[in-house]
């Protein structure tokens, strides 16, 4: 008897990873999540988060009854022949398809792929590319992620047609990326960037170089500090995730009319507008991008609701809701790559 295979799709970022477990017919069996899966920050911790989330997903599978009316991954009733089964799934039966923060950095990707793992196979692309493939069902489109980190890409390669049963050329996947290099050198407009800039603002207030603000008071209250020495000590070991945890304080101050918080939000929005324009406009001397001006754009991530109203009118007309998840995007990508092997 041939042992059944399964697929785990992972959307792994700086704060947490979300997984989707499917059987080999594409029926979604369960979802789960766990901790950070940024392989640039900590590859070993990312692998453990993925394993933890996968084990949770296996435990979360609900038994299938004779009267079950489940819907398959492509939105159709599950047929008798394709009805998912619920054996005791082992990790070595699972093909891991992961979209991970930091996978755009070759050294981080190589380190992650060198780790011991319990899965049947491992396919990794960046979380940015996975999100873009999912958002546009594998067809051409642009995407900006703005959560704990930020990055953007435009995909103009051949479509993979998630859930459509169609595909064209799969020999090349053409992406053009912007940003995503991590704090403190990149990730403008992100939660981590907002938190870092808020800390810088607070230090300037402590030094009496700029006026006291609601943002300053919020950061001091959040971190329980009352002088610059305490603040510096508290944030000394902070990375993107920890700075990102301060972003809600910035957003809350912005919504209450704080000028300092508003200036940061506007600065972030200006960056995203510039990025969006470069993604959806024709790039000179690159024939593959001749029709970018017609491409749809998705803005996703925990801060998307904050920045979306601040995008230019031109970008607003291109905005669409994601058609599918990053997990679905990377699973279909992995299946395509396996078919080509």
- Count of DSSP strands: 9
Distance between the termini: 24 Å
**Main β-sheet, spatial strand arrangement:** 3-2-1-4-5
The averaged pLDDT comes out at 86
The number of helical segments is 12
Range of helix content: 25-40%
Structural class: alpha/beta
Residue fraction in strands: 15-25%
The SSE string, one letter per element, is EEEHEHEHEEEHHHHHHEHHH
Poorly predicted ranges: 65-85, 159-171, 283-291
Secondary-structure topology with pairs:
Layout (H helix, E strand, L loop, with lengths): L5 E7 L4 E7 L4 E7 L8 H17 L34 E7 L5 H8 L7 E6 H9 L5 E6 L3 E6 L19 E5 L11 H16 L7 H10 L4 H8 L4 H5 L2 H9 L3 H22 L16 E4 L3 H4 L5 H6 L7 H15 L1
Parallel strand pairs: 1-4, 4-5, 6-9
Antiparallel strand pairs: 1-2, 2-3, 6-7, 7-8
Helix pairs in contact: 1-2, 3-12, 4-5, 4-8, 4-9, 5-8, 8-9
Provide an overview of this structure:
By secondary structure, the protein is α/β, with parallel strands linked by helices. It is 38% helix and 16% strand. The protein is built from twelve helices and nine strands. The chain has helices at residues 43-59, 106-113, 127-135, 191-206, 214-223, 228-235, 240-244, 247-255, 259-280, 304-307, 313-318, 326-340, and strands at residues 6-12, 17-23, 28-34, 94-100, 121-126, 141-146, 150-155, 175-179, 297-300. It has a five-stranded mixed sheet. It has a four-stranded mixed sheet with strand order 8-7-6-9, sandwiched between helices. It is globular, with a radius of gyration of 22 Å.
């Amino acid at each position: 008897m041939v042992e059944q295979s399964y697929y785990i799709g992972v959307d792994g970022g700086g704060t947490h990873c979300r997984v989707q477990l499917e059987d080999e017919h594409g029926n979604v069996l369960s979802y789960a999540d766990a901790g950070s899966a940024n392989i640039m920050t900590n590859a070993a911790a990312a692998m453990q988060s993925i394993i933890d989330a996968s084990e949770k997903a296996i435990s979360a599978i609900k038994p299938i009854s004779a009267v079950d009316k489940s819907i398959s991954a492509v939105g159709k009733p599950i047929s008798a022949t394709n009805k998912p089964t619920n054996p005791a799934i082992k990790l070595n039966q699972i093909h891991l398809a992961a979209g991970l923060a930091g996978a755009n950095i070759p050294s981080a990707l190589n380190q992650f792929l060198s780790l011991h793992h319990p899965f049947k196979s491992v396919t990794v692309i960046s979380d940015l590319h996975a999100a873009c493939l999912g958002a546009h069902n594998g067809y051409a489109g642009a995407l900006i992620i703005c959560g704990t980190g930020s990055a953007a890409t435009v995909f103009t390669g051949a479509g993979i047609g998630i859930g459509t049963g169609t595909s064209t050329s799969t020999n090349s996947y053409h992406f053009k990326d912007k940003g995503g290099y991590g704090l403190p050198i990149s990730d403008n407009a992100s939660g981590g960037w907002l938190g870092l800039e808020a800390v810088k603002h607070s230090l300037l207030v402590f030094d009496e170089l700029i006026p006291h603000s609601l943002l300053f008071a919020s950061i001091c209250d959040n971190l329980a500090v009352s002088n610059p020495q305490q603040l510096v000590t508290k944030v000394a070991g902070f990375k993107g995730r920890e700075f990102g945890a301060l972003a809600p304080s910035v957003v809350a101050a912005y919504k209450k009319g704080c000028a300092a918080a508003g200036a940061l939000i506007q600065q972030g929005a200006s960056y995203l507008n510039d990025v969006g324009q470069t993604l959806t406009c024709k790039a000179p001397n690159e024939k593959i991008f001749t029709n970018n001006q017609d491409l749809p754009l998705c803005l996703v991530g925990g801060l998307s609701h904050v920045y979306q109203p601040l995008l230019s009118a031109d970008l607003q007309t291109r905005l669409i809701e994601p058609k599918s998840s990053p997990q679905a995007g990377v699973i279909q990508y992995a299946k395509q790559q396996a078919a080509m092997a």
